[in-house]
Design brief:
Blueprint (H helix, E strand, L loop, with lengths): L1 E4 L4 E6 L5 H7 L3 E7 L2 E6 L1 H6 L4 H11 L5 H14 L1 E7 L2 E6 L5 H6 L3 E4 L4 E4 L4 H10 L3 E4 L21 H12 L14 H12 L3 E5 L2 H14 L7 E5 L2 E2 L4 E5 H6 L1 H4 L5 E4 L1
Parallel strand pairs: 5-9, 10-13, 10-14, 11-13
Antiparallel strand pairs: 1-2, 2-4, 3-4, 5-6, 6-8, 7-8, 11-12
C-alpha cells in the first residue's frame, strides 16, 4: 500500500513481503525505514536522498515497481512533482538585481557556480553577477537543475535592420575589434584618447546586429553618440532613441546617461542584448 499525506507532504508505503538485503538497500537509496508492524515494513520516500543521489523520476518508479509497490496516477504525479521541486531554482527580479531563488540545499553545486554569483549574508540571498547571467543558466542546467527563468532576459535580440558602416577602420582598430570578438564579444577596449574607441564600438554594433543600449556619462556625450552613429553608419536618426530626463524614447538603438539608466535598469534591461559603456 502507498499513501500521500497532504499535511506532511510525504509519501508513505508498506512492504508486506520479505525483503532481501539487495532490495532493502535499494529501497534505502530513495526512502527511510520507519519500522515493522505485524510483519509489514513501513517506509517514507526521502526526496533529499533522491536529490543528493541525482536519481531521476524513472529510477525511483523502477525501484518501487521492482519491489511490487502498486502506483496510481495521483501518487506518480506527486512523486514527479516533488522530485522536480527538489531540482528547481528560479531566476527572478529583486528590485534591480537578479535573484537566484532556491528552496533546496545546493551543497557542492554551489561551489560550481560560486564565480557567477554573490551571496548577501545579511539578506541570506544569492544574487547573479549580471555579466555571467547566461553562463550561470547553462551551468545550472549542466548540474541537473531545472531552471525557471522569470526575468524575461534574452541573450540575443536582433536589430530589425542591418547596419552598414560608412568608415574604414584603421589597422589597430580592426585588431582591437577582432580581439574583442574572439573573447566572446565581452570586455573593455582601452585605447588612448582620440584613438577612435567610439568608432570601434559602432563597428561592433554593426558586426553583432543586436539591439543596443549605449550608456554615456553626460547628456552632451549622449548627443555626440547619436551624431556619430548617423555620421558613420546608414542608420537613420529616428531609429536612435534618447532615454533621459523627461524625454524617454526606447528604440532598437537607445542612448542614455548613467544616472537615468541606473534608475530605470529594470525597464531597460529587457529590451537590449548589447551594452556599450562609454
Amino acid at each position: 500500500m502507498i499513501t500521500w499525506s497532504e499535511r506532511a507532504l510525504s509519501i508513505y508505503f508498506e512492504v508486506k513481503k520479505w525483503l532481501d538485503k539487495e532490495d532493502y538497500e535499494k529501497l534505502l537509496t530513495i526512502a527511510d525505514y520507519l519500522g515493522r508492524t505485524n510483519r509489514v515494513a513501513k517506509f517514507v520516500i526521502n526526496f533529499n536522498k533522491i536529490h543528493k543521489s541525482n536519481l531521476e523520476y524513472e529510477d525511483v518508479i523502477s525501484i518501487l515497481e521492482d519491489i511490487g509497490i502498486a502506483l496510481n496516477e495521483k501518487i506518480l504525479e506527486k512523486i514527479k512533482e516533488r522530485i522536480l521541486e527538489k531540482r528547481t531554482v528560479r531566476l527572478i527580479w529583486d528590485q534591480n538585481r537578479v535573484l537566484l531563488q532556491t528552496h533546496i540545499y545546493l551543497g557542492e553545486k554551489f561551489n560550481k557556480i560560486r564565480d557567477f554569483v554573490t551571496y548577501d549574508r545579511r539578506l541570506r540571498k544569492i544574487y547573479v553577477k549580471p555579466i555571467y547571467f547566461f553562463e550561470l543558466k547553462k551551468k545550472l542546467n549542466e548540474l541537473g537543475l531545472r531552471v525557471i527563468d522569470e526575468t524575461g532576459l534574452s541573450d540575443s535580440l536582433k536589430l530589425p535592420f542591418n547596419i552598414k558602416l560608412n568608415v574604414t577602420l584603421r589597422d589597430y582598430q580592426k585588431e582591437a575589434l577582432n580581439t574583442w570578438l574572439n573573447k566572446g564579444a565581452k570586455g573593455v577596449i582601452a585605447l588612448p584618447t582620440g584613438a577612435g574607441k567610439t568608432i570601434i564600438a559602432i563597428a561592433a554594433m554593426a558586426k553583432l546586429s543586436e539591439r543596443t543600449l549605449i550608456v554615456s556619462y553626460t547628456k552632451e556625450q549622449m548627443f555626440q553618440w547619436q551624431d556619430m552613429i548617423v555620421k558613420f553608419t546608414d542608420v537613420k536618426k529616428e531609429y536612435i532613441g534618447l532615454y533621459y530626463g523627461e524625454k524617454k524614447r526606447l528604440s532598437p538603438i537607445t542612448i542614455s546617461t548613467y544616472q537615468t539608466a541606473y534608475r530605470h535598469i529594470d525597464v531597460l534591461t529587457k529590451y537590449f542584448s548589447f551594452l556599450i559603456i562609454d
